[in-house]
Amino acid sequence: VTRKHFKDLTYVCFNGESTSEELVVYTDSESDKARLMEEVKNDHQRRAEMKINAAVGFRHVIDLLSSENKLIVGHNCILDIAHVHSKFLAPLPSTAEEFVSCVNKYFPSIIDTKILLNADYTLQRKMKRSSTSLSSAFSLLCPEIAHGFTRNVLSYEPCVKVEVHVDEMRSSNWNSGAKHEAGYDAFMTGCVFAQACSHLGIDFQLHSPSENLTQNEKLLKHMNLLYLSWINGDIIDLRTGNRSAELSGSNMIRKPYRKILFKNIVLLWGFPSKLKPSMIRDCICKTLGPSSVISTYCIDQTAVFVQFSKAELASDFLNLKETLEQSNDAISHLHPLSQLLEGGNTRAASYETYKEICASPISKVLFADQAEAVGIKWKTELLPSDKEESHDNTRSHLESAMDSPQAVQKSKTRNTEDVVNDSSNKRFCDDIIDSFLKVEKIRRTTNL
Fold first, then answer.
1. What are the protein's GO molecular function terms (predicted)?
2. CB-CB contact of 124 with 250 (8 Å)
3. pLDDT at 423
4. 3-state helix, strand, coil in the chain (%, to 5)
5. What's the pLDDT tens digit per position in 229-243?
6. C or N: which end of the chain has fewer Cβ atoms within 10 Å?
């Protein structure tokens, strides 16, 4: 109303932290009105920038660490670095090479104390090849702090003395065992790093506090190396993106694991909650053979990864699952996979589908809820090369079980008229029975 009927009056609103002020201002001319509106606009922008800067919070710390080229110290810290990347730098990229390139741009100097512990033979000997977890390393290398031992009873005296300052309020309740709390874990990591540096020949008494450790020659060969996979001992170099095996100085003995092949992986979710990953593996092995599944990995209580020994087996499993769900008769309930498909909510797809679901801006706690929120309605996603020939491939897999004399004789005695009159449902039943007989044969052979 003011704008329409009173050309010399202007309505403005100023928003404060807790209150807002509304004014109707008289202006002599259009130029005065334009100046007033420009001032109001600038004020709104200034307040918005202040609010954004106040909300940024810890991002200022990240920017400061990056700009000052500080040495970042962590323990088995690739997941910590990934978390910082996703929350303060950019969404996580799809490849490890892109990830390390971005990390190295912002943090060109990172040290992983787990790398130091496994690279130094003297430290390994002192730790007696025990666990290199943060709490174990801290207990052994800094027992005076970890356990409150006095110096005269130490079996191992630290090379570097670490002074602990606790305020008066907390001095009476000082707890040196609060591991897995972010602040105390950082403290333990710093203590372990100091002891490891001492074993590498770095004397902190000869260096000023302001000296840049990122240029220390004894640290450079261990810098920017992170464990990409602790199970396999894979190490990635943040400077080049190259991957390598366990450090040559390490004498850790590891069980060999097969390389992860994404084309061999099937994603399962929505299965009955009573099923554990080992039970899911048993169900599949009873169907496709005892060596068909290499491993199962639990994402959460609603989803698992199943890695097959061959890509063909992953395809066979998806085709067989779809066949069983389409038949949905009494015979299908006798199949070993019926336990996995119980309830009718089990979904299966390739690893690519997992990436698509995780890339969605929608965020749910459980993976099954996440997939539903994204809009997944189908039960089985066949592999691209199998979608057109899924039925033929499934029949080929099932009919391979018909190698007994009885099965051969049965096929010979069936006449043309019987074949023509068979319904699709009956053909599914025959396929499932044959598959079930094959499973029983495999099971008996294995037991013998």
1. 3'-5'-RNA exonuclease activity; RNA binding
2. yes
3. 46
4. 50, 10, 35
5. 766 678 899 998 888
6. C
Taking alpha carbons only, the member of 275, 194, 267, 236 closest to residue 82 is 236
Neighbours of 305 (CB within 10 A): 18
- Residue range 140-153: average pLDDT? 65
Distance CA 71, CA 190 (A): 12
CATH 3.30.420.10 domain residues, the chain: 72-164+176-244
For 10-62, what is each residue's pLDDT tens digit? Answer: 777 777 666 777 778 888 788 888 888 888 888 888 888 888 887 777 888 89
- Measured CA to CA, the distance from residue 423 to residue 440 in angstroms comes to 26
Spatial distance between the Cα atoms of 343 and 70, rounded to a whole number of angstroms: 55
Question: What tokens appear for 13 in the block?
Answer: 């609103």
Estimate to the nearest angstrom the gap between the alpha carbon of 1 and the chain centroid: 57
Class of domain 72-164+176-244: alpha beta
Report the distance separating Cα 120 and Cα 396, nearest Å. Answer: 56
Determine the 3-state secondary structure of 419 from DSSP. helix
Phi and psi based region of residue 403 (left: phi greater than 0; alpha: psi -120 to 50; beta: remaining): alpha
Contact 314, 265 (CB under 8 A): yes
Cβ atoms of residues 354 and 267 within 8 Å: yes
Residue 154 identity (one-letter amino acid): L
- In angstroms, the CA 37 to CA 35 distance is 6
Cα dist. 377→70, 330, 354 in Å? Answer: 49, 25, 14
